[in-house]
């Protein structure tokens, strides 16, 4: 077992893990942050996307020990208290989710997309940038609309992801 | 995933000595191919040597007529680097086509090259651009580096430090993605440096990345997609699977080569 | 009230927890003292088990138990069941082989359950599972249905030719007569490709045993927790129903695959008592590919008889349906009663005859997947109709119109009595929205760019609102398919609705609340929808077959009627008026002809304080329940138009435009309904272009991860144009028909009709991958050269 420390959603955390513990397992099992999900074994579905040191990563494809000393933001750390992040609000407003399982990863990827590319995103760009996030419910139609609107709202408030 | 011992060296020297000490140990760079393989219990390295904390392995710089990229430089950094976009725009575009954004945020050039996955993109760029792979002990021309499926010229205890790309006049990459995995089913990187024209193909060869000499010869007459019309690529030695037969892959090599040449001319 | 009532696009009440990461899916739940299960799965498609040696596994770190089929038998735990009896043509029953939760004597597909290892951690359980030594004697794999039917290799002794049943529906003689007088016959051989449902949440289960009360709790990813409890109690014999609680918390999509009662949850709940601690299992994606029930997988020969003007005279269909290695919970019904009765489509077809052979193969079980039988039927009908129109040189839209059913009710030759519809209206609206008039111009533009453009129609019908219990009982169903609801009004007028429907993405917490808000005139925030727990909801049949609106909400509506009726009695006492003078409107009980009235909450309070009436006159309290059994299926229908462009150099097909016009009857929440249509289309496009489960000849699953099974991504799809027409359903109080499966039913033939239109020939199978389309383009080249 190895002791690791990191900042998760603005809070310092410490834990003992086996080297083979994935970041997502550390988040879900050690920290009980179960908003980050696992939908595949091959790094393709994106249900596990979180931000590590400001960049979206697949937490199922990263060892927890590699994140020692990092700053991690999960879906639970996105809202500012009861106030939703503009991307979260946009997903609700535009019905960008159905079963909700892929949603945390979708939202974290969408926020990263805006952080990288700015708030003016067209449909084609959004669809290409969602390459690493699979949704089985929505047919993506409303996710694309939600990301577009969420990006605009982020631009209007000048907001980047919380705690980064 | 099977259990393994984990090491986090601070220097390349430490990494190399750990690698030499741990038989069958593996270097962990971005882990975007290694970790999924281990999760599926298809690989069981007894030790992982994580390069994440090694100083000085990441970075992009111009050195004379070469572009030099550190081994742990992430795909996103190559894709968005102004230096790369100026020097070899086709390489920046290729890096921007790897995996998906989250994978590009973690995956590294050194990891991709060392792993030599037959469907990875970087091996094609290295081969077409005539890159040199610089390790802790020596310099290896790309031509001699990629030796087979997941096989390279790396010796035990050898760690890639950086990769040097000679700057070419024209270069571009065209990729046909496997519909399921989105890895390259056929990826063609073309590069022109003076009269030296190279066409490297990934995703298609049953022995990994290779140069399509018939296409190179055709392009030497004139560097234009028209030169490739009627030039057929043999299906011999190409992969066949549920997604693409060797014949279809052979056909796509021609199509992707034309598209890459068109893109290269446009830069 | 309009803003939260019926017909309003109310934003979903459930979303807050999902977008903030506060959902509670099964794998998010941990029980104190929890252990972890890992299954030892067969690496062989077909093999006899000679010996299982668990000694090394038992000695591994953290291992508590290794259990096998023999242990299940010792505890008298029964096998998994198939709940729908199908009879052969000769009236004899289908041949169902035993389906133990852990294999006994033999394994029959790769991924079949051989043993379970229970350990302190998931990693320890998985490590030890690899150490269970199983001595197999491999037997031949039988993947191909035609090969299976030769009976050279027998999968279950009860079915020596691997034929589960040989079933038929319709009038053979009348159909033969129709073909005898036909002027033209269109014939097609069709493959309906095998699919993996792939809800993004993999299945999971936690079994928990309370020794003090000798009672079990099972947390599981289920679309129908009560049916799971019924089967686990009455058939598998885990515990009587009052000693078994099944909780299906937030469930991350189902699409049919979470209807069934599988080996894993059975083993977890049973093993919890064996090891005396909770047992948790969470599937990974590869296990999901191996062992979740697959969908579709038909081989069909179909013929359409036409007169000289192109009027359809008859339809003849022969289908072989792959049911896999065991009969899953509802598998037998899918290629029979959920398939053949839909073969009339939207058309007036005087004679239909359909034969279906159900076939065992050494592959994973096949059962209902979004649409379940109806996509397969629609694919047959809509491919045939399209090709017939083309062969006759008639416009496919006009050809369809000419053959549409126009008078309702309409009795088809295959059981169904369509109640209402206006197929021409949907088609005309779709033609307009899709700008079909401008297609020829767009096709020329594509040709100028070296591309092939095609247009494809699909006019589908489905039978939803499953279903009248008497009707399905007469067809072999082991259960009734009604739904239950209980409306509990609290003393201050807030309302809890307990429903037997289950929401796993459909938004019931919102739509059901809209109904309550609309009917009781109370704000939607004052309504809570409770589902997914057998200790809270008395009974229910669950969510599948697009039934939760038409059946589940009708039950709520019926219960609401009773609440209002009781409220009127209470209000009459409270206002000292005659019950007959009480009117309920806009959330108030008023005395007609006076200005006296009480709000809904005030009447609720009166019901509970019971000061104004004696218990002999009226029972205190305000809580009513209802069971609603539908009187007919509902028949949603519509027209989808797909426009594609093909790059002949690569074979890549791009969907340029998608138009859907659906008739779902009355719509409660148009935002949610559109979302259901979008998702359905995406799955249908997935079937047509991308997805296909593939086994190799040795029975190994080739598509066991997303590396090889192609899921639709955002970039594979366009934005959709969705419109509706409305003919209210006459058979339920709300006039709704169901929308959950429409897109998946409509889409595949629309895509393939568009591709074949672009190619100029019909020779392409699903999935029309780039390679398949490129090969099809090559086959067209001689024709182009000849032009």
What are the defining features of this structure?
heterotrimer, B: 267 residues, alpha+beta, Uridine Diphospho-n-acetylenolpyruvylglucosamine Reductase, domain 3, 2 domains, four-stranded antiparallel beta sheet, 33% helix, C: 787 residues, Aldehyde Oxidoreductase, domain 4, seven-stranded mixed beta sheet, five-stranded mixed beta sheet, 23% strand, globular, oxidoreductase (chain A), Diverse_Oxidoreductases (chain A)
Element pattern of chain A in H and E: EEHEEEHHHH
* Residues in helix, % of chain B: 25-40%
- Per CATH, the architecture of the largest domain in chain A is Roll
Mind telling me the CATH class of the largest domain in chain A? Answer: Alpha Beta
Average pLDDT score of chain B: 96
- Structural domains of chain B: how many: 2
GO molecular function (chain C): iron ion binding; oxidoreductase activity
InterPro entries (chain C): Ald_Oxase/Xan_DH_a/b, Ald_Oxase/Xan_DH_a/b_sf, Ald_Oxase/xanthine_DH-like, AldOxase/xan_DH_MoCoBD1, AldOxase/xan_DH_MoCoBD2, AldOxase/xan_DH_Mopterin-bd_sf
Domain Aldehyde oxidase/xanthine dehydrogenase a/b hammerhead (chain C): 20-140
Keywords (chain C): Molybdenum, Oxidoreductase
Helices, strands, pairings?
The complex is a heterotrimer of chains A (164), B (267) and C (787).
Chain A: E1 2-8, E2 11-17, H1 23-30, E3 49-52, E4 55-58, E5 71-73, H2 86-93, H3 103-117, H4 123-129, H5 141-157
Parallel strand pairs in A: 1-5
Antiparallel strand pairs in A: 1-2, 3-4, 3-5
Helix pairs in contact in A: 2-5, 3-5
Chain B: E1 5-7, H1 12-21, E2 26-28, H2 34-39, E3 47-50, E4 60-63, E5 66-70, H3 75-80, H4 82-87, H5 89-95, H6 101-106, H7 109-115, H8 122-129, E6 132-135, E7 139-141, H9 142-145, E8 146-148, E9 151-152, E10 160-166, E11 170-177, E12 184-193, E13 196-202, E14 210-211, H10 213-221, H11 246-265
Parallel strand pairs in B: 1-3, 2-3
Antiparallel strand pairs in B: 4-5, 5-10, 6-7, 6-10, 8-9, 11-12, 12-13, 13-14
Chain C: H1 15-19, E1 35-41, E2 47-53, H2 55-58, E3 63-68, H3 69-74, E4 106-107, E5 113-119, H4 122-129, E6 133-138, H5 145-149, E7 163-170, H6 172-180, E8 184-192, E9 204-210, E10 215-220, H7 225-235, E11 244-247, H8 263-275, E12 279-282, H9 285-291, E13 298-306, E14 312-324, E15 351-360, H10 374-391, H11 396-403, E16 410-411, E17 417-418, H12 423-433, H13 439-448, E18 452-461, H14 469-474, E19 483-489, E20 495-499, H15 508-520, E21 527-530, H16 548-574, E22 582-585, E23 588-591, E24 597-599, H17 600-609, E25 623-628, E26 637-647, E27 652-663, H18 670-690, E28 721-724, H19 742-759, H20 770-786
Parallel strand pairs in C: 1-12, 10-11, 14-15, 20-21, 27-28
Antiparallel strand pairs in C: 1-5, 2-4, 2-6, 3-5, 7-15, 8-13, 9-10, 9-12, 13-14, 16-17, 18-26, 19-20, 19-25, 22-23, 23-24, 26-27
Helix pairs in contact in C: 10-19, 15-16, 16-17, 18-19
């Amino acid at each position: 077992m190895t002791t690791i420390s990191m900042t998760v959603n603005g809070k310092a955390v410490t834990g003992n893990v086996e080297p083979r513990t994935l970041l997502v397992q550390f988040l879900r099992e050690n920290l009980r942050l179960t908003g980050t999900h696992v939908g595949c074994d091959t790094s393709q579905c994106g249900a596990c996307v979180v931000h590590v040191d400001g960049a979206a990563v697949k937490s199922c494809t990263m060892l927890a020990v590699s994140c020692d000393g990092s700053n991690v933001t999960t879906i639970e750390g996105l809202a500012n208290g009861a106030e939703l992040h503009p991307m979260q609000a946009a997903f609700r407003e535009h019905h960008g989710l159905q079963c909700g399982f892929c949603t945390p990863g979708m939202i974290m990827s969408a926020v990263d997309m805006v952080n990288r590319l700015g708030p003016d995103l067209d449909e084609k760009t959004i669809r290409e940038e969602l390459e690493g996030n699979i949704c089985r419910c929505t047919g993506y139609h409303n996710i694309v609309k939600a990301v577009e609107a969420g990006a605009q709202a982020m631009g209007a408030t000048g907001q980047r992801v919380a705690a980064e | 995933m099977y259990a393994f011992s984990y090491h986090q060296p601070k220097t390349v020297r430490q990494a190399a000595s750990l690698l030499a000490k741990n038989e069958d140990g593996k270097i962990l760079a971005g882990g975007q191919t290694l970790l999924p393989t281990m999760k599926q219990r298809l690989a069981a390295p007894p030790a992982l040597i994580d390069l994440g904390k090694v100083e000085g392995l990441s970075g992009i710089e111009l050195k004379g007529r070469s572009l030099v990229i550190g081994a742990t430089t992430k795909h996103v950094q190559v894709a968005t680097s102004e230096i790369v976009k100026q020097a070899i725009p086709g390489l920046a575009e290729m890096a921007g086509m790897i995996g998906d954004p989250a994978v590009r945020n973690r995956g590294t050039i050194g990891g991709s090259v060392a792993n030599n996955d037959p469907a990875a993109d970087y091996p094609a760029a290295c081969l077409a651009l005539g890159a040199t792979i610089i390790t802790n002990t020596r310099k290896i021309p790309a031509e001699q580096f990629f030796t087979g499926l997941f096989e390279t010229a790396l010796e035990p205890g050898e760690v890639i430090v950086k990769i040097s790309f000679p700057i070419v006049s024209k270069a571009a990459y065209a990729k046909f993605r496997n519909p399921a995995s989105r890895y390259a089913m056929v990826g063609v990187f073309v590069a022109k440096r003076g009269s030296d024209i190279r066409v490297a193909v990934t995703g298609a060869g049953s022995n990994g990345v290779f140069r399509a000499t018939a296409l190179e010869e055709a392009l030497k007459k004139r560097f234009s997609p028209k030169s490739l019309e009627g030039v057929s690529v043999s299906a011999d030695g190409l992969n066949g699977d549920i997604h693409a037969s060797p014949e279809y892959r052979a056909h796509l090599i021609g199509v992707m080569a034309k598209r890459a040449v068109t893109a290269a001319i446009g830069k | 009230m309009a803003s939260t009532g019926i017909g309003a696009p109310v934003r979903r009440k459930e979303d807050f927890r999902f977008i903030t990461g506060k959902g509670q899916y099964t794998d998010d739940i941990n029980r104190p003292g929890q252990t972890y299960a890992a299954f030892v799965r067969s690496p062989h498609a077909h093999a006899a088990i000679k010996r299982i040696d668990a000694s090394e596994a038992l000695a591994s770190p953290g291992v508590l138990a290794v259990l096998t089929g023999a242990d299940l038998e010792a505890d008298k735990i029964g096998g998994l069941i198939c709940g729908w009896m199908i009879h052969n043509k000769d009236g004899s029953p289908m041949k169902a082989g035993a389906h133990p939760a852990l294999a006994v004597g033999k394994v029959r597909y790769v991924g079949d359950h051989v043993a379970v290892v229970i350990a302190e951690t998931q990693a320890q359980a998985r490590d030890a599972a690899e150490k269970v030594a199983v001595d197999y004697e491999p037997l031949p794999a039988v993947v191909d249905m035609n090969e299976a039917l030769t009976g050279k290799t027998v999968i279950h002794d009860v079915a020596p030719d691997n034929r589960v049943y040989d079933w038929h529906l319709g009038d053979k003689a009348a159909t033969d007569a129709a073909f005898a007088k036909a002027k033209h016959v269109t014939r097609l051989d069709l493959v309906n490709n095998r699919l993996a449902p792939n809800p993004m949440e993999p299945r999971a289960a936690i079994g928990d045993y309370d020794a003090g009360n000798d009672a079990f709790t099972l947390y599981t990813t289920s679309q129908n927790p009560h049916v799971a409890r019924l089967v686990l109690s009455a058939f598998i014999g885990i515990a009587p129903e009052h000693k078994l609680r099944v909780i299906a918390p937030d469930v991350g999509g189902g699409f049919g695959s979470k209807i069934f009662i599988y080996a894993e949850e059975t083993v977890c709940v049973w093993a919890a008592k064996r090891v005396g601690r909770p047992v948790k299992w969470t599937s990974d994606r590869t296990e999901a590919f191996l062992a979740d029930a697959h969908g579709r997988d038909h081989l069909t020969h179909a013929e359409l008889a036409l007169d000289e003007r192109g009027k359809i005279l008859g339809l003849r269909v022969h289908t072989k349906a792959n049911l896999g290695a065991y009969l899953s919970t509802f598998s037998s019904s899918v290629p029979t009663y959920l398939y053949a009765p839909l073969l009339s489509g939207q058309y007036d077809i005087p004679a239909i005859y359909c034969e279906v052979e159900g076939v065992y193969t050494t592959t994973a079980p096949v059962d209902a997947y979004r649409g379940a039988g109806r996509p397969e039927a629609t694919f047959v009908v809509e491919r045939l109709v399209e090709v017939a129109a083309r062969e006759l040189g008639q416009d496919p839209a006009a050809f369809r119109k000419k053959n549409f059913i126009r008078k309702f009710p309409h009795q088809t030759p295959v059981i169904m009595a369509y109640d209402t519809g206006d197929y021409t209206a949907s088609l005309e609206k779709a033609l307009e929205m899709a700008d079909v008039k401008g297609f020829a111009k767009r096709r020329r533009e594509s040709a100028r760019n070296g591309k092939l453009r095609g247009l494809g129609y699909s006019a589908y019908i489905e039978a939803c609102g499953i279903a009248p219990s008497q009707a399905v009982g007469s067809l072999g169903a082991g259960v009734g398919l009604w739904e239950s609801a209980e409306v509990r009004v609290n003393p201050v007028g807030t309302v809890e609705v307990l429903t037997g429907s289950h929401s796993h993405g459909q938004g019931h917490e919102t739509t059901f609340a809209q109904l309550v808000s609309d009917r009781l005139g109370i704000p939607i925030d004052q309504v809570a929808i409770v589902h997914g727990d057998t200790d809270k909801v008395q009974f229910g049949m669950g969510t599948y077959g697009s039934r939760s609106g038409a059946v589940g909400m009708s039950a709520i509506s019926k219960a609401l009627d009773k609440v209002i009726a009781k409220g009127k009695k209470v209000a009459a006492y409270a206002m000292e008026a005659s019950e007959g003078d009480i009117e309920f409107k806009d959330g108030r009980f008023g005395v007609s002809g006076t200005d006296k009235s009480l709000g809904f909450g005030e009447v609720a309070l009166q019901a509970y304080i019971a000061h104004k009436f004696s218990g002999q006159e009226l029972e205190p309290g305000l809580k009513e329940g209802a069971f609603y059994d539908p009187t007919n299926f509902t028949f949603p229908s519509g027209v989808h138009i797909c426009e594609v462009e093909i790059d002949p150099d690569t074979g890549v097909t791009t969907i340029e435009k998608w138009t859907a016009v659906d008739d779902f009857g009355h719509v409660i929440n148009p935002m949610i309904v559109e979302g259901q249509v979008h998702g359905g289309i995406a799955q249908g496009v997935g079937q047509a272009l991308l997805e296909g489960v593939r086994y190799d000849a040795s029975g190994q699953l080739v598509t066991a991860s997303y590396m090889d099974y192609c899921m639709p991504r955002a970039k594979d799809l366009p934005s959709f144009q969705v419109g509706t027409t409305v003919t209210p359903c006459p058979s339920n109080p709300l006039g709704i028909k169901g929308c959950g499966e429409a897109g998946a039913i409509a889409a595949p033939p629309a895509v393939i009709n568009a591709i074949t239109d672009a190619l100029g020939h019909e020779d392409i199978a699903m999935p029309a991958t780039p390679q398949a389309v490129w090969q099809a383009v090559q086959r067209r080249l001689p024709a182009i050269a000849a032009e």
